[in-house]
Amino acid sequence: MSRLPDLLAAVTDGRGPGPFALVRREGADHLDLFTGTLRVADRLADIPLPASGAGPHTLALVPYRQVTERGFACVDDGTPLECLVVDAAERIGTAEALAALPADPLVATDAAFDSTDGEYAATVARVLAEEIGRGEGANFVIHRTLTARAQGTPLRAALTALRRLLTRERGAYWTFLVHTGTRTLVGASPERHVSVDDGLVMMNPISGTFRHTGATADRAALLRFLHDPKEVEELYMVLDEELKMMARVAEHGGQVVGPYLKEMAHLTHTEYLLAGRSSRDVREVLRETMFAPTVTGSPMENACRVIARHERTGRGHYAGVLALLGRDDAGRQTLDAPILIRTAEFAPTGEVRVKVGATLVRHSTPAGEVAETHAKAAGVLAALGLGPDAPAAGPDPAVRLADDPEVRATLAARNEPLARFWLDQRPPGSTVLPGLAGRRALIVDAEDTFTAMLAHQLTALGLTVEVRPWQQPGPLDLHDLVVVGPGPGDPGGDEPKTEALRTLLTGLLTAGRPTLAVCLGHQVLAGLLGLPLHRRASPYQGVQRRIRLFGTTRRVGFYSTFTALAGTDRLPSRYGPVEVARDDTDTDGAVHALRGPGFAGVQFHPESVLSPDGLAVLADLLGHLLARPERTLATHHPTERGVTDRG
């Protein structure tokens, strides 16, 4: 017999029901009821996960402040990492649960955001100008908090809100209520952050928000949304950022599947699915993927700094995850972790907090991002009785625009400009170049984990690759190639990172050690070669372009605000003659790439999903850097080095 009636009776009678959780996962016709004891952990590695026993073991509420485990900045509000150690798990049919959950009218009053629309719009404008406009990153998520007061017993009000979400929301990855005894979270999160099952790691980057104006989404308006460059680029950018995470936790990187529509009651999103194999402990997977770029920004480490600079308060659980850890019947670890968004937190005092954020990119407008925060709050506000209800959500909505042929074709067309390296399965060894097997490369990470994706591509070409942080590049003499990687920041500044990269590159150039510099590394290299550095009037964040690269047309992706300038295709330097690939549409001569005796630099990201010719570019550059040709650059052409053009 279900324990739910007894638990609900305890709530009604004012008796403490103890810690518990009710969860309906996407596609399920039942809810899982978890009960047990509560423990507080300091680190993700401390989350309890017994060595044996099948089934769910622990439900962890991972707050945003846990990102400090990776050394990242945050406004630390002290929210604990709480773990519900599952003593009993029970499945309850959805109909049975709905019949048992309270259907009282839910009344919430005094609703207001902690910042006015005008204040939030001003924050958006500052981030666009001071952060994206100055090369600090490609996108950032800044949150605001709506507070209200629930009438009646807070836990009963939360249970009522859960029932309303179960009947009125649709398309959620998890619809849930978690009660710890001191806090209650209830929500309908659309987004899986990460899951692990039988060693398969999966992530679901979601971005782009289409707001419904009626009972169902308007087809014509949806198609306009799907063609909107801002929405397209926003999804590409978070796809790149989550590929970086997958590249860190999956042995062979991640494969991209999609895109798809995520249709909910009040809005529709676009999403991709990423999959890759991993043998890591699931708690380590959680740590290495803290937290989703869809709720932080990119590059991740600097996004956390930007958030700390511009947000007034700590995030609590917003942007964290709700993580269910366990084991399957064969004893293998399992993980299922939705992002804690579209979630309300009920305090024992009756105060309710709903945190929402908007993704700010170079195309953003303050008014548009203000509207997005209201749209994202709509589903939870409706459950609290503070907004209009959507029509009741049945198992199959009357209209699924994802089934429309033109919508499907439009979504499929989004993959046409992307790098097949990340979309296709490849037979092992199919991209290895003769002469590279067994040679070693060191990648120096300048705080952008694009380096993890770059490592997978160089490995696919045959190199053995190691990645080290810029603070500890270590000995270089054991490597055939040193890659000075990308990162945020001003290449002409005097920050410790920039100075360290200058010192590193100067030593490499002086020693004649084969060197490849990417993005920030390329900008610092260009400065050492005497080229002026320039901040673009319009940031190149998430921009794909066709460029002429040393005689070959390439399609590549840029994430940059600064660029080097050159007035000629060839120039002398103290390290030998330099050949420059310049923008032929730019009167100032923005430098896309350069190469000289034993060194090369590229402003774009060959490893990005936006670089369909990226692997061919790397193959060509490795031919230049590692073949150690005796001829001068004046006689060098890509075809003469025997490097196959895989573009």
From TrEMBL:
Enzyme class: lyase
GO molecular function, one term: anthranilate synthase activity
Keyword Lyase tagged: yes
Keyword set includes Protein biosynthesis: no
Entry protein name: anthranilate synthase
Domain Chorismate-utilising enzyme C-terminal: from-to ranges: 119-376
Organism name: Micromonospora rosaria
Catalyzed reaction equations: chorismate + L-glutamine = anthranilate + pyruvate + L-glutamate + H(+)
Keywords: Glutamine amidotransferase, Lyase
Domain of life: Bacteria
Extent of the signal sequence: none
Annotated EC: 4.1.3.27
Domain Glutamine amidotransferase per the UniProt entry, residue ranges: 442-621
Any Gene Ontology biological process: L-tryptophan biosynthetic process
InterPro entries reported for this sequence: ADC_synthase, Anth_synth_I-like, Chorismate_C, Class_I_gatase-like, GATASE, TrpG/PapA_dom
